[in-house]
Every structure is written in C-alpha cells, then in structure tokens.
Design a protein that fits this description.
By secondary structure, this protein is an all-alpha fold. Helix content is 70%, strand content 0%.
Length: 181
C-alpha cells in the first residue's frame, strides 16, 4: 500500500509540475485552447490544466505570482526524484528482497514528495490570496469542474477494467482424466 501511495504521489507531482511552472505566465482559457501551454501539454501526451487559467489576471498579479514562484526555489527536482526512483528500482530488481531497505527508500521518496507538495501548497495559497473575490470564486468553480471530470474518468476507467475482466479468457481449464491419458 505504501508503494502504491508513493507511486500515486509521484505521478501526481510529475503531472502537476508543468502546470505549476506555467501558472504565473499564462492565463489559458477554455475559449483559447491554442496557447503555447496547451500545445506543450498536448505534445507531452498529458493534460493538466493550470489552476489559475481563465482568471483574467492583471499584469500586477502575474508579476507578483512570478516573484512568489522565484522565492519558493526550484520547482523541478526531477533529477533528485529520478535518483530516488532509480535507487528503489535497484532494490526491487535484485535476487533477494530486502524489505527494510525498500521501506526506507519508499519513506525517503514519500518525505521528499511531501516536502515538495507542502512548499507548493504554501506558494499556491499565497497566489490564491492575490486574487480578487470574483477570481477566487472562478478558481473554486474551475477546481470543482476538474474534480468532477476526474471522477468521471475514474468511473470510466473502472468500468473499462470491469468490462476487460469479464471478456478476458478464462485461465486454462483443469485437465480431465481422459485428457491426462
């Protein structure tokens, strides 16, 4: 379960890193999907919308958000994460499994992810508090829409998995006495 949690957190961070990096530089709206960010996300094969998209940020707000992101330090710690994941892989890809070492490595990965997520949440809160009341309302509505879409996708995925499981061929039937002769 801890490994699953670590992998989910890692994938979430990886997918959200791009939108966070562009948060202050873009104001993508649903009406204008041909922006640089949209093209880059499509090119990468993923779509994780900018949480501050479509809020009609003022230039002053954008400037303040850029400053907050600069102050927060590096956003992409992919090298460090890659090193940690490579270390985990080496522990998994061995002839003998050392559960204590694997747990320790997973804890290290989880702690790094947790620290990164906490820092990101602090910065996003500061950015959120730069918004006008109308922008905050739109921000929260956008979040709700994304949450609903994610729930729909998860339900579709579960349905697809269930359909695939039902249509999968059964495992080899046990041998009958006549077939064994």
């Amino acid at each position: 379960m801890r490994k699953l949690t670590a992998m989910i957190v890692a994938s979430t961070l990886a997918m959200s890193a791009a939108s966070f990096a562009f948060a202050a530089d873009t104001t993508v709206s649903d009406a204008a999907p041909d922006t640089t960010q949209s093209k880059m996300m499509h090119h990468k094969g993923m779509h994780h919308p900018n949480p501050f998209a479509g809020l009609n940020l003022t230039e002053a707000q954008r400037t303040q958000m850029r400053e907050l992101m600069k102050e927060s330090g590096p956003h992409h710690q992919r090298g460090e994460m890659r090193t940690q994941m490579d270390a985990l892989h080496k522990l998994v890809a061995t002839d003998s499994f050392d559960e204590a070492k694997v747990k320790s490595q997973i804890d290290e990965i989880t702690q790094a992810q947790s620290a990164h997520m906490l820092e990101r949440a602090k910065v996003e809160n500061k950015m959120y508090n730069l918004l006008t009341p109308e922008q905050k309302k739109q921000f929260n509505e956008n979040y709700q829409k994304r949450a609903e879409k994610m729930a729909e996708r998860m339900a579709e995925h579960k349905k697809h998995q269930a359909d695939a499981a039902q249509s999968a061929p059964a495992t080899a039937a046990p041998a009958t006495p006549a077939a064994a002769q």
